[in-house]
Amino acid sequence: MSSLESPLLASPYDPSLQQPVIESDSVAIEAAGSAKFGEYTSRAKARANNRLRVLGCVPFSAVMLLCIMFLTFGSYWCYDIPGSIETQLTQWFGHGYSHGENLLLYSVYSWPNCVLAFFGGFIIDKITGVRRGALLFCSLIALGQLVFSLGAQFKIYYLALFGRFVFGLGGESLTVAQNTYTVRWFDGKRLALAFGLVVAFSRIGTSMNFLVSPELCSDPKNITINRSEAYHADMYGAGGVQPLYPQALPDPDVALHSDDSILPSLLTLLADSSTGGNGSEPDWYMEYDKEGVPRTVWVGMGMCVVSLIACFLAAYLDKNGETAVEKEREVYMSTLSEEETAYVLKLDELNEPTNDDISFKMITRIPLPAWILFLITATFYVAILNFYQVASDMMQNTGEKISQDLAGKYMAIPNIVAIIGSPLGGYLVDRNGRALIFIITACCMLIGAHVFFLALAYGWIHVTPVPVMLWLGITYSLGASCLWPLLAFVVDKEALGTAYGCMTSVQNVFLALMALVIGQLQNWAKAHRPDTVLEYTLPIWIFIGCASTALVLTVLLLCVDGARGGRMNASAARRAEMKREVEEEQERLSSQEEPQVIAHETPSEQSQEFARSRTSSTSINGATSI
Predict the structure, then answer these.
(1) What predicted TM-score, i.e. pTM, was given to this entire model?
(2) Is residue 265 part of a domain?
(3) For residue 421, how many other CB atoms are within 10 A of its CB?
(4) What are the pLDDT digits (tens) for 388-424?
(5) Angstrom distance (rounded) from CA 281 to CA 72
(6) Interhelix angle 603-617/188-217, nearest 10 degrees
């Protein structure tokens, strides 16, 4: 075979590494000379097992995977910026900015995805293609963050709000494009690894936002102390004022970099001693860093630009890689007989079907257990994702009242845990089955986590939130690992894409509505119960209610599933048995078909079906996913 030569890509053709094996009981196609051809290469298999090289030395798959991983890095980074710096945004926009305005920034993101999550895959598959679709949605994300940054820079809230809406137009659909790229270029065991790396990298984007954004936003400028005699008199005893932290106070006329544990008391002392009782101007002044919020949002914009560059590079690599694979295919197909060529084309059709259009008629084929699962997923994610939106501000103003930077570090913990926990949770469920039991466990764990935060807010306990944030990360991993794959057990393959679209749309409806409700309740509590912590405990009560609702619905689903054969809560051994029964039935039916049509499901078809399930199961909010 001739080798492929290209300025960008180069690879020797090696068909032995690419063909799926046709079993002995399949249709046997004999070439001239009576030699049996036992292996054939579909287009999807050729792409997934390519040996292409970038610039002659770097594996194409590695470079493509790196670009795919960075596609959503910017969107995941920017999604939670309002939650990670809510205190600074409130100070920046002024008195009119409240909890409601901050949560509205999340709600408008979810509004377009109530619809686009349903049609995202259809748009990419049937209208734009994966390359143009990814560029379109990634550009919308970058444009939305640009508008949001301009609104924040010039303190125009409604401009920032519009930017978040545009940002949402691309958010969920870009994840669909990302998954489509992954399925195109990876298969089998490499597909599972690729999806794991892509999901983990998205979590890293979210975690980095919570770690970095508060640091970027909360650094005050130097506090300059003037007039040393007045400073010493006021701060060290004149008028009976005693310093709370004398060991931490600076020397006169020396700039002081604030420490969060010192700054509030220091400011109180300075305010009390500012006039000396005669109405004169204070002998000190302090100027906060007025560039914190703009700097933070523009760094987020930079992350979106990085993702956009990765998107252009992914499109370029995809186009050139596809061309290279097709050239290899032309050489390969020229060696086949007419019958063999027809057989390989049939493999292409099986691995890349063209009849996956989303149809509203398919909604009628979604059974009752699936609709119950939609509600479980929505309420479970409200208790986690909406909690992320208010938790940082809550920890700063209740309990131990920790600093903004420390709250951001705590908020990064669940996503860091999920980087490792999600694959482990999936492995645990795959090995043992009983997915509904695991979901019930996750709901109980989630209720326990929110009860802890409730006790923390009321001051009933005085401990660090670190253990419960770790607990929350484990809960998130376990719940997500069970919820999304379950849909494939109760919905027909032809309606699975529509079902996943409905599942994601229902989730976004709940996230959008609950963000609005929580924001309004917090504003009401702040106005009517200003001397209490009700504005922070009300959301926690809502999260406890949502987690409890998910628990009750899961118990209901367990009963419904038991009456329908127990497919969703089957053990791993029972699932394997049911799979064999289905395969035997398919083989029996396919044996009645014409001999030139492939007789039964090939390993390549199985891997493609797995890919479709993983593609759909990871198409959730910024935050979301298995």
Answers:
(1) 0.70
(2) yes
(3) 23
(4) 888 888 888 888 888 877 888 898 899 889 888 877 7
(5) 52
(6) 20
